[in-house]
Design brief:
Strand order of the largest sheet: 2-1-28-27
Shape: globular
Strand content: 35-45%
Radius of gyration: 24 Å
Order of helices and strands: HEEEEEEEEEEEEEEEEEEEEEHEEEEEEE
Number of strands: 28
Structural class: mainly beta
Distance between the termini: 63 Å
Number of helices: 2
Oligomer: single chain
Largest sheet: 4 strands, antiparallel
């Protein structure tokens, strides 16, 4: 009898399913309102991803998007109300989104299109005025009212472009630099040859060929890195003494990538220093290494968020996350670096105001 009862008990779930009893099973949880229930089929070629408030969507975890192959540089709108992006790939300048500056660009959608006005593009910078540099080292400029891009008269060969407060900083292959303001090349006197410039929240940082960082502007939130809080505009070398190969500026804080692959941060502790929630304001005014992050090859910052890519292709993020810009599937702030999962090996990334773009192998 006991054996018969056990057999009947084992059959009950199957009988319930056949008679429609499975309809009473709990329904699967609804996906978050800002997450796609089923991502579309991935396009062929390299994998382009975005998250946060990016052109064409808003998600809190990495999401595959359409884009050109082999992107080497990305520039995005500098104001949250604008939604457009530009990418350099295969010598072409690709644009998508809406309201991108330049009448010659024409109508845009969320599908990238290549601009026929450019060939052999190597870099692009986005500001109120836009600039692109071609393989011959010449810079072209345009703004919202431009019917066509115009060449910037300058003889030096440009290799990189970096937006600043009211200009685009052009850096030549020998390290000399100057500003491009509304199509004019404005020489800047500097005793240092540069490899990179950055700008955020009233402060501009220059990284010279010696690996030294100099700051210009408002460093009143401890960005000088020597323990001080200057009430004047600064124009001097910061307190970080290790040789650097990259810098990033956020809203009130500095991120430095040392030549040994370690990351150091300092400045406003309400920013994204990555040392934990209990890190004191007094400590934050001097550079401190983020323990556990080594072999870093790229750093960027935007607003109160920061990002780092290591030599294994892993992307790390920390700081504000109110728009899902950390890509961790939620909107929870991180006080220490967290690694993004599920994308594969990251080749490069670009941090916009409230979003991130990256490409994987």
């Amino acid at each position: 009898m006991r054996t018969i009862l056990a057999s009947i008990a084992a059959l009950l779930p199957l009988l319930a399913a056949c008679s429609g009893g499975a309809a009473n099973a709990p329904a699967p949880a609804n996906p978050p309102v800002n997450q796609p229930a089923q991502p579309p089929a991935a396009p062929p070629g390299p994998k382009l991803w975005a998250w946060g408030e990016f052109v064409g969507g808003w998600v809190t975890a990495p999401f595959r998007i359409q884009g050109p192959e082999g992107i080497t540089r990305v520039a995005t709108a500098t104001e949250p109300k604008h939604a457009w992006a530009m990418a350099v790939a295969d010598g072409k300048l690709w644009v998508w989104g809406k309201d991108a500056p330049g009448k010659f660009i024409g109508g845009l959608t969320n599908t990238p299109k290549a601009l026929p006005q450019f060939a052999g593009v190597t870099d692009v910078a986005a500001l109120t005025d836009q600039c692109a540099v071609l393989a011959d080292g010449k810079v072209w400029w345009w703004d919202a009212e431009s019917a066509e891009p115009q060449p910037v008269a300058r003889t030096e060969r440009v290799t990189r472009l970096f937006p600043s407060d009211d200009a685009v900083n052009a850096v030549a292959d020998d390290g000399t630099w100057w500003q491009i303001i509304r199509g004019l090349a404005m020489p800047r006197g500097s005793e240092h040859l540069l490899v990179q410039t950055q700008f955020a929240a009233g402060l501009e940082a220059h990284l010279n060929t010696k690996g030294e960082i100099r700051l210009y502007g408002d460093a009143s939130r401890g960005q000088l890195g020597d323990g001080s809080v200057p009430d004047r505009r600064v124009r001097e070398k910061c307190g970080f003494t290790k040789k650097s190969m990259q810098i990033a500026l956020g809203d009130g804080f500095v991120v430095a990538l040392a030549q040994d692959g370690t990351i150091w941060t300092w400045g406003d502790n309400k920013g994204a220093l990555g040392h934990g929630a209990s890190w004191s304001t007094e400590k934050s005014r001097k550079p401190a290494q983020i323990i556990g992050l080594t072999g870093i090859v790229q750093v960027q910052a935007a607003g109160h968020s920061a990002y780092a890519l290591d030599d294994q292709g892993s992307l790390w993020c920390w700081g504000d996350n109110d728009r899902g810009q950390l890509g961790l599937g939620d909107k929870t702030r991180r006080h220490t670096p967290a690694k993004l999962q599920g994308m594969g090996k990251v080749k490069w990334f670009h941090a916009a105001i409230n979003a991130v773009y990256c490409e994987t192998e």
